[in-house]
Amino acid sequence: MPWYDYLSFGLGGVLLTNAVPHVVSGIMGRPFQSPFAEPPGQGLSSSTVNVLWGAFNAAVGYVLVLQVGAFDVHDLRHVAAAALPAFALALFSARHFGRYNGGDLAPRAEPPHSKGA
Fold first, then answer.
1. DSSP letter at 112?
2. 3-state SS track over 2-69
3. So where are the chain's domains?
4. What distance in Å separates the CA atoms of residue 96 and residue 41, rounded to the nearest whole number?
5. pLDDT, tens digit, for every residue of 36-57?
6. CA angle, 35 as apex, 31 and 37 as ends, to 5°?
7. CB 78, CB 71: distance < 8 Å
8. Model pLDDT, residue 106
9. 54 with 22: CB under 8 angstroms?
10. pTM of the predicted structure, to 2 decimals
11. Cα–Cα distance between 77 and 86 in angstroms, integer?
12. Which of 22, 59, 86, 102 is the most buried (most CB within 10 A)?
């Protein structure tokens, strides 16, 4: 199988993972961070924007995983190519968005601020 099929599986897995919090937040009627908020990725977008963004991610992820290459759910290499980048994004997102949504319960030390500067 060509290397670009594995790249497609990985990017598709990332997009499918990214679709989940946007669609779920939108369905629940809750705002959530999106690239369309101010500032991007930090501010909140409406539930409608999140459903649309999540649906777009799911559609492109579907195409990348199931239409570009010959994805075989029984082939561990294919599953790993899609799942490992998806898992990495999930861990990154948990830490990043936990700061904004209360999911990162461990207190963080604030950087020292210089006074009088």
1. P
2. CHHHHHHHHHHHHHHHHHHHHHHHHHCCCCEECCCCCCCCCCEECHHHHHHHHHHHHHHHHHHHHHHC
3. 3-99
4. 9
5. 999 888 889 999 999 999 999 9
6. 50
7. yes
8. 56
9. yes
10. 0.80
11. 14
12. 22
**What is residue 79's DSSP assignment?**
H
Look-up of token digits 């029984």: 74
Which carries the bigger pLDDT value, residue 58 or residue 95?
Answer: 58
pLDDT digits 0-9 by tens, 73-107: 999 999 999 999 999 999 998 888 877 777 666 55
Q: Residue 75: which residues within 8 A CB-CB, separation 6 or more? A: none
Mean pLDDT of the chain: 88
Q: Is 98 helix (H, G, I), strand (E, B) or coil?
A: helix
* CA nearest to 22, candidates 7, 8, 37, 2: 37
Length of the chain in terms of residues written: 117
